[in-house]
Structures are given as structure tokens and as C-alpha cells.
């Protein structure tokens, strides 16, 4: 591996013009393809095989006029007053005139009025589903009722769901990353070159993703996740190779040779670090949820592009940079101290390994305690940013009717004839009304043929309340006893519950697959059993403490205001499995970068303890910079209003901080110092079976030494 990458690095360095031209041409082609084939994103969380999805599919077939997007306009009279039909009529009329609207239902005819007569709900039924609602339709919908006077009009409903805007907040993370690079390298050229290399990779990956969006359905979160990871790993991978290149230059190697060796050694670590991230993300397919599979594959694609760019384009850019990649002092011939804080920290951790392990494990265990109260749900308008139309409508509905009206469920009753549907719907309505968490059940609404009827169900509490989840399960249990018809419960709340249940079932399989494959991969890299096992156990500490802090802030509200969390509540359903996949891959990044250098020095003759100290000494500064960069990139997304992106960015940033500084740079060297030579033990049977990938570059060193001996000495 190292020898192959060494040759690739030298080739790219020597042919810098061609390599750079190929990547720039690819970037341009991908940009054109993205412009031509870009398709709309989706907020549809399809769940094949679940009851809620079967009900939605049945609606699309049997009751198409009720399967489109729904908007809800909430109207309120001044305090102490009552609504009258004349004041509400303009709102209904203007809503019905919105392009694509099938009907807007007068609340006085539908009896959608609060008991005191002050509040009313106007249901607006669109022909198309939410993925096909245009911005022009949303704008027209938001203007409905603008002519009404003397009343408050707020617009809500799923029709307002749109893709989160990727604005300037993530640029904050890139700016901080640039500052960290400048401080780390002491060279504007090195920092700018590393950042440019990463941005080219992100550009190619994102353009390719948008080009595919015309043929593959992407959720609105997918591009943001791909952008997060593409930026973070792109900068980190370039940082590691550039740092090793500068080290070889400082040792007196020629630039081309230094580029080849940096790509062969640090590049090998990049390949396997990237492979663990790709495995973790691609493994999301085991959940059997299409939107989650697409998210994982899209993010894995951007990571793979980042690896390719780091191995090929970066050596070419290094060739253009010349000696300016070094700090000015080194270019002027001044000697810079080789030992820094990393060596001091490595020695300290090695000496105090037992107390450090005890304090570290106990501390992370305490931080993980809130995770036992973790609750999951899909986001609703109640978690939207204050001041947005959806949030205003949610709050006004809760004020006038109770939170349960924001969590409406639908029971779909289907049979071969109208009589069976009528009988089953009546029986089901009576049973549902007996469920403790149900406030009301509306009369059945049959389709034109009478073979399908809808029962609107109003829970007593909001969409994310534990009682509402219990009510959904109880309703399904009750209606299962009704004979003569098929009855399924759906609605946004039911879909969220099904997502959580299905993800819970998939989690053990996912963990076994991802952790198992990654441990096997690390066993190939390090030729050790204990090192991969230690890496996986350290990850459990990372993920536990990350979940604990995230639950405390986003769910329980501790310090919520500090992070812009207006309404604490359950975490988004797919956050745990997504967070586990991403953080596991990133955690193995730092494991590979740190421990591969320990392995390299151990193989080349150092004692196990000294190799551990050397690994920390050589890589602590770079890993620190990489962790700060990745944290700043993820942290930039915390400033977005979208609750999914905010919680995801926070959890990823926090997880990287904990894993890099507490687990990898503190607990890992402590464990390595405690294990000594035993850390590199591998049974002879496995030693013979496992291929030697030469990640540490031992065979490369022998190859270079042999090549040097074959070169005849020039005389006179």
C-alpha cells in the first residue's frame, strides 16, 4: 500500500499540470451536470413496510384527493371577541384561489371552531404532495387572508416545509478552520493550499450529488450532511499529508521525494481512515429506510472524493507551492525545536496512566447518564424557529384548541364494499374514543366509491408527547380486533413513531456490521487484536457522553438558550444511528493517524513506550488542529435555524471534541503505555492469514534503501 501510494504521490507531483487540469475539468463538468440535472429535494420520510406507509400508499390509490399536501390556516379574533362568518370568508376564498388547491374548508361549515368561538381552523387541501409544491404556491398560500381585517391569521401545515437554506453560518466554520491552519503551519501558503485542496474536493462531491438529485430522491438534509463531512474530512486529510510533507522537507529530502513519502505514509493512514468513514456511512443501508440509505451513500461519496483529492491533487499543489509551504524561519535556514507539547503530554500520560484512565472513564460515564432518558421523534412545527409562520400557527392552534390539534392522526379504513367500510369505521371510531390519550374522533369521511373512509383522530397532547406515542400503539391494538376491513393509522406523528421503532430494530445489526468490519480493517492496518478492540471500546465512551450531553441540552433544556434551542424536545429519530455511523468513522480517523505513527516507530525499532510517546509527539499538534477544524466546521451548522441540522451539527462537533482530546489523545496513549509490547500482539495463525498492507511504510523504507544502494556512485 505505502509503496503504491508513494509512486502515486511522486507521479502527481511530477505531473502537477496535468493532474490539476484533470481535477479542474472534472469540477467544471460536475458543475455543468449539476446545473442541467439538478432535481428538487424532498422532506418525505418514506418507510416501506410500516403501517403508516401502507396507509399513505392506500390513500394515494383510493383517496387521491386526500393524499396531497395539507395546509392549516389558524384564525383568531381579538381577546374577548368571537369570529363571525363575514370576517372569515375572505380567508377561505383567497385560500381556495391559491394555485394547486383543491378545496379550502369553511370552519363554520366544518365546525372547526374553538368552544369559545374565538379561534377557527381552515383546512386547505392541495392536489400535489409536499415535494411538488413550488415556492410560488407557498408564497400565494402565505398571502391568503391578507385582505381580512380585525383578526389574526397564521399559516401552517406541511405545505410550508421546505429545504433548509445553507447560508453563511457554515462559512464561520471554514473561517475558523483557515485560522487554525495558519497557526498550525505558520505559513499562509500552506494553509491556503490545504483549504483550496479541500474546497475542490467538496465542490466536485457536492456538484456530483446535485447532478444525481435529478434521478435519485434526496431529502433536504442530505446535501447539508454531505457538505459537513466533505469539508471536515477534506481539510483534515489534506492537513495530515501536508504536515508529513513538511516534516520530510525539514529532514532534507528533495520536494518530489518528500511528496512521495508523505503520500505513502500519511496517505496510507488517510486511505484507511477514509475507508472506515465510508463503511460506517454506507452501512446505514441495513436500517432498510430509503432516505437514510441515500443520506449515508451521499455522504460516503463526498468522503471518497476527499480521499482521492488528498492523494492526487494535493501532491500537485505542493509542487506549485515549493518551499513556501514551510514557515519563513525554516526557509531562512533557522533550526526549529523538534520537541513540543505532544512529547511532554505523551510522557505525562504514560507515567500517570492508571489515574488518568480511572478519571477519564468515570468522567465520561457521568456525562453519559442523561442518555438513558433519550426520546426520539420527527421534528414538527413546535420546534421551528420563533417568528416563522409555521411556529406562529402551531402556537396559535395550541392556544385555541390544545396541542393535540397539532398531532392529528388518520385512521384509513378500507374494504371491498361500502357497507363493510361503514360498519368497520363506526366500530373503529368507538374503540378509538376509549383510548386514554385520545381527545376526539371525527365522523368517517368516505371516498367517492365508499370503499375507503378516513377517521381524523385528535390526541390530547402534542406530537412529541409520550402519551401521544402510547395512544398510537393503543389505537393500533384496538382497531386490529375489527373484522371485515383493513385499518391502518398514519399521519406525521405515526410516521415518526414508526421511524423510531424501525431504527431501534436496525441499531444492533448496524452496530455489529459497522464495528465488526471496522475492527477487522483496523486489525489489517495495525496487525494487532488489542488495538482495534481498544479503539472500539473508546468509541463507546465517546458516543455515550455525546448522547448524554446532547439529551441534556436539546431534550431536557439544560443551557438550551446558550445554543439557540428555543423549545427543548425529543431528538430527531434518525440522529442516533446517523451520529453513531459518522462519529465511529471520524473516531477511527484519529485512531489511525495517532496509532499508525506509534506502530511505524515500533516497527522501526523503538520500544513500545517510546513509540507511544513519539506518536503523540509527532501527531498531537496535527490531531489537535484537525479536531479543532472539524469541530469548527460542524459547529458552524449549530447557528442554522433548522432543528435537525442544529442538533446534528452540535452532536458531531461535541463528539469530535470528546473523542479527539479525551479518548484518542488521553485515554489511548494511557492504554498503550499500560499494554506495552502486548498492544502489538497478533496470534501467529492470524499473522500468516492476514495480508500485510504495510501502512507504516516498512517495506517502502526497505525498497528505498535498496534503490539507493543500486544507484552507482558518481566519480569525479
From TrEMBL:
Q: Which UniProt keywords apply?
A: Cell membrane, Membrane, Transmembrane, Transmembrane helix
The answer to whether the entry has keyword Nuclease is: no
All copies of the SSD domain together span 188-320, 509-674
Indicate the transmembrane segments per the record. 171-191, 198-216, 222-240, 269-292, 298-321, 352-371, 507-526, 533-554, 574-595, 622-640, 652-675
UniProt cross-references to InterPro entries, sorted A to Z = MMPL_dom, Mycobact_MmpL, SSD
Pfam families, from UniProt?
A: MMPL
Q: Which PROSITE patterns match?
A: SSD
Highest taxon of source: Bacteria
Mode of membrane association: Multi-pass membrane protein
Primary localization class, coarse? membrane
Cell compartments where the protein resides: Cell membrane
CC annotations in GO: plasma membrane
Identify the PANTHER family for this entry. MEMBRANE PROTEIN MJ1562-RELATED, MEMBRANE PROTEIN SCO6666-RELATED
State the similarity comment. Answer: Belongs to the resistance-nodulation-cell division (RND) (TC 2.A.6) family. MmpL subfamily.
What is the official name of this protein in its record? Membrane protein
Its source organism is: Acrocarpospora phusangensis
Lineage, highest ranks first: Bacteria, Bacillati, Actinomycetota, Actinomycetes, Streptosporangiales
Amino acid at each position: 500500500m505505502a509503496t503504491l501510494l508513494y509512486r502515486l504521490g511522486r507521479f502527481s507531483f511530477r505531473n502537477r499540470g496535468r493532474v490539476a487540469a484533470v481535477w479542474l475539468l472534472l469540477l467544471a463538468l460536475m458543475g455543468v451536470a449539476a446545473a442541467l440535472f439538478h432535481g428538487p429535494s424532498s422532506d418525505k420520510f418514506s418507510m416501506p413496510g410500516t403501517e403508516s406507509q401502507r396507509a399513505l400508499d392506500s390513500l394515494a390509490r383510493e383517496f387521491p384527493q386526500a393524499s396531497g399536501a395539507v395546509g392549516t390556516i389558524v384564525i383568531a379574533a381579538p381577546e374577548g371577541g368571537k369570529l363571525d362568518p363575514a370576517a372569515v370568508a375572505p380567508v377561505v376564498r383567497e385560500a381556495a384561489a391559491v394555485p394547486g388547491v383543491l378545496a379550502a374548508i369553511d370552519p363554520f361549515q366544518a365546525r372547526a371552531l374553538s368552544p369559545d368561538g374565538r379561534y377557527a381552523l381552515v383546512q386547505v387541501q392541495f392536489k400535489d404532495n409536499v415535494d411538488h409544491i413550488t415556492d410560488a404556491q407557498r408564497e400565494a398560500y402565505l398571502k391568503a387572508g391578507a385582505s381580512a381585517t380585525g383578526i389574526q391569521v397564521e399559516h401552517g401545515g406541511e405545505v410550508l416545509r421546505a429545504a433548509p437554506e445553507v447560508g453563511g453560518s457554515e462559512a464561520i466554520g471554514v473561517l475558523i478552520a483557515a485560522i487554525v491552519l495558519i497557526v498550525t503551519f505558520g505559513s499562509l501558503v500552506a494553509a491556503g493550499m490545504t483549504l483550496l485542496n479541500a474546497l475542490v474536493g467538496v465542490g466536485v462531491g457536492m456538484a456530483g450529488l446535485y447532478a444525481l438529485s435529478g434521478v435519485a430522491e434526496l431529502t433536504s438534509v442530505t446535501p447539508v450532511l454531505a457538505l459537513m463531512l466533505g469539508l471536515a474530512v477534506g481539510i483534515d486529510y489534506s492537513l495530515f499529508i501536508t504536515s508529513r510533507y513538511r516534516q520530510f522537507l525539514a529532514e532534507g529530502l528533495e520536494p518530489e521525494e518528500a511528496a512521495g513519502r508523505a503520500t505513502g505514509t500519511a496517505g496510507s493512514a488517510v486511505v484507511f481512515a477514509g475507508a472506515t468513514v465510508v463503511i460506517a456511512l454506507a452501512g446505514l443501508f441495513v436500517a432498510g429506510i430509503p432516505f437514510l440509505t441515500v443520506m449515508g451513500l451521499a455522504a460516503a461519496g463526498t468522503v471518497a472524493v476527499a480521499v482521492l483529492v488528498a492523494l492526487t491533487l494535493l501532491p500537485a499543489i505542493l509542487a506549485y507551492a515549493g518551499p513556501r509551504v514551510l514557515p519563513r524561519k525554516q526557509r531562512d535556514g533557522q533550526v526549529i525545536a523538534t520537541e513540543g507539547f505532544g512529547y511532554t503530554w505523551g510522557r505525562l500520560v504514560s507515567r500517570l496512566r492508571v489515574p488518568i484512565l480511572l478519571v477519564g472513564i468515570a468522567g465520561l460515564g457521568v456525562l453519559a447518564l442523561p442518555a438513558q432518558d433519550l426520546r426520539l421523534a420527527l421534528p414538527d412545527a413546535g420546534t421551528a424557529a420563533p417568528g416563522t409562520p409555521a411556529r406562529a400557527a402551531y402556537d396559535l392552534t395550541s392556544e385555541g384548541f390544545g396541542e393535540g390539534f397539532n398531532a392529528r392522526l388518520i385512521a384509513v379504513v378500507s374494504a371491498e364494499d361500502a357497507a363493510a367500510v361503514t360498519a368497520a369505521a363506526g366500530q373503529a371510531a368507538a374503540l378509538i374514543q376509549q383510548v386514554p390519550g385520545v381527545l376526539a374522533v371525527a365522523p368517517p369521511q368516505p371516498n367517492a366509491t365508499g370503499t375507503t373512509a378516513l377517521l381524523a383522530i385528535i390526541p390530547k397532547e402534542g406530537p412529541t408527547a409520550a402519551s401521544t406515542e402510547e395512544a398510537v400503539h393503543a389505537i393500533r391494538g384496538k382497531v386490529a380486533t375489527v373484522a371485515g376491513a383493513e385499518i391502518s393509522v398514519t399521519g406525521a406523528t405515526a410516521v415518526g413513531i414508526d421511524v423510531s421503532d424501525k431504527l431501534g430494530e436496525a441499531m444492533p445489526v448496524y452496530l455489529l456490521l459497522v464495528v465488526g468490519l471496522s475492527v477487522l480493517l483496523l486489525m489489517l492496518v495495525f496487525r494487532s487484536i488489542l488495538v482495534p478492540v481498544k479503539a472500539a471500546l473508546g468509541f463507546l465512551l465517546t458516543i455515550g457522553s455525546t448522547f448524554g450531553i446532547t439529551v441534556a441540552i436539546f431534550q431536557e433544556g439544560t443551557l438550551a438558550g446558550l445554543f439557540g434551542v428555543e423549545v427543548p424536545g425529543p431528538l430527531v429519530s434518525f440522529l442516533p444511528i446517523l451520529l453513531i455511523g459518522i462519529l465511529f468513522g471520524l473516531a477511527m480517523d484519529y485512531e489511525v493517524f495517532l496509532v499508525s505513527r506509534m506502530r511505524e516507530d515500533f516497527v522501526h525499532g523503538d520500544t513500545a513506550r517510546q513509540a507511544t510517546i513519539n506518536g503523540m509527539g509527532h501527531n498531537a499538534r496535527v490531531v489537535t488542529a484537525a479536531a479543532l477544524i472539524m469541530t469548527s466546521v460542524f459547529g458552524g451548522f449549530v447557528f442554522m435555524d433548522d432543528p435537525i441540522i442544529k442538533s446534528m451539527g452540535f452532536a458531531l462537533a461535541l463528539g469530535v471534541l470528546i473523542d479527539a482530546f479525551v479518548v484518542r489523545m488521553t485515554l489511548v496513549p494511557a492504554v498503550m503505555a499500560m499494554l506495552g509490547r502486548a498492544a502489538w500482539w497478533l496470534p501467529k495463525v492470524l499473522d500468516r492469514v492476514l495480508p500485510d498492507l504495510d501502512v507504516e511504510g516498512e517495506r517502502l523504507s526497505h525498497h528505498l534503501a535498496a534503490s539507493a544502494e543500486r544507484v552507482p556512485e558518481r566519480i569525479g
